[in-house]
Amino acid sequence: MEQLYLLATLADTRVAVAAHEVEAVVKLADISPVPGMLRHVAGLSALRSRVLTIIDVPALIHGAPTPADRRGLAIIADISGHSYGLMVDAVHDICEVPEGDLPLRGQLDRAWAPHARAIVEQDGHPHLLVSLASFIETGLLAQAA
């Protein structure tokens, strides 16, 4: 069964996101930092009269905040009734993949293990199939620790 995926680069890694998880992709404007937040919470931003919590996913994966000049795009998602913007390096395509999800193969970087569910291949390139909600859940666990 063909599924629609958003293909992007996130933390220097090719990823796929099931389209039903994506509300929109936007160019980020102003991000207001929130004192006392963990480093992967870049801050708050406004989109169409609502407040988004902006998650610096590369900071969550690599441990270092994304420089301000590289904060260009975000995938907007509603996760557990809250609006989030998850920063991405680039967005490449939205397309159907006839093969669908394939099992994970080989060794996976430990930083990606909580997020990767499968592999999606498009034009001969593998993309990690990730769940946007997993980035929020992992961040909450880091905050609780």
Strand order of the largest sheet: 8-1-2-10-9
CATH topology: OB fold (Dihydrolipoamide Acetyltransferase, E2P)
Separation of termini? 40 Å
The number of distinct structural domains comes to 1
Q: H/E order of the elements? A: EEEEEHEEEEEH
Number of strands: 10
SS strand fraction:
over 45%
Instruction: Tell me the name of the CATH homologous superfamily.
Output: CheA-289, Domain 4
Low-confidence stretches: 141-145
Number of separate helices: 2
What characterizes the major β-sheet? 5 strands, mixed
CATH class: Mainly Beta
**Helix/strand/pairing class, anyone?**
mainly beta
Kindly report the average pLDDT value. Answer: 88
Shape: globular
Task: Tell me what you see in this structure.
The protein starts with a strand and ends with a helix. The chain has a 5-stranded mixed beta sheet with strand order 8-1-2-10-9, with no helix packed on it. Residues 141-145 have low confidence and may be disordered. The longest helix has 13 residues, at 132-144. With 145 residues, the chain is mainly β. The chain contains 2 helices and 10 strands, in the order E-E-E-E-E-H-E-E-E-E-E-H. The chain has one domain (3-144): CheA-289, Domain 4 (OB fold (Dihydrolipoamide Acetyltransferase, E2P), Beta Barrel), CATH 2.40.50.180. A hairpin with a 2-residue loop joins strand 6 and strand 7.
